[in-house]
Amino acid sequence: MGGSAPRILSIDDYYLMDDGTSPVAWQEDQEEQYRQSLLKSLKKNLDDGHFSFIIVDALHIKASEILDVHNAARSRAFSVFLVDLPDEPKRTGTNRKCSEKDLEVI
Question: How high is the pLDDT of residue 43?
């Protein structure tokens, strides 16, 4: 039943610990290094072929950052989908029985 689980690659993995805390604050000057490490990991996962669906969790502020991910995926015959999530979840997108406290958790 169903397919294999997707692989999730997150830029957060390069500076956050398992419990979600950071041993150091986000370092703006290291952001490009984090992004390059993420791109390298994506390319390795694409080449290894273990996953048919890969989610890249990262903010892409510049078109060139999106194109780096897009080009890596497309050159290996993957389809690319871009999702822009809103800052706050909308009430209509949740179960109508959710309380305000539940929405805060979401």
Answer: 95
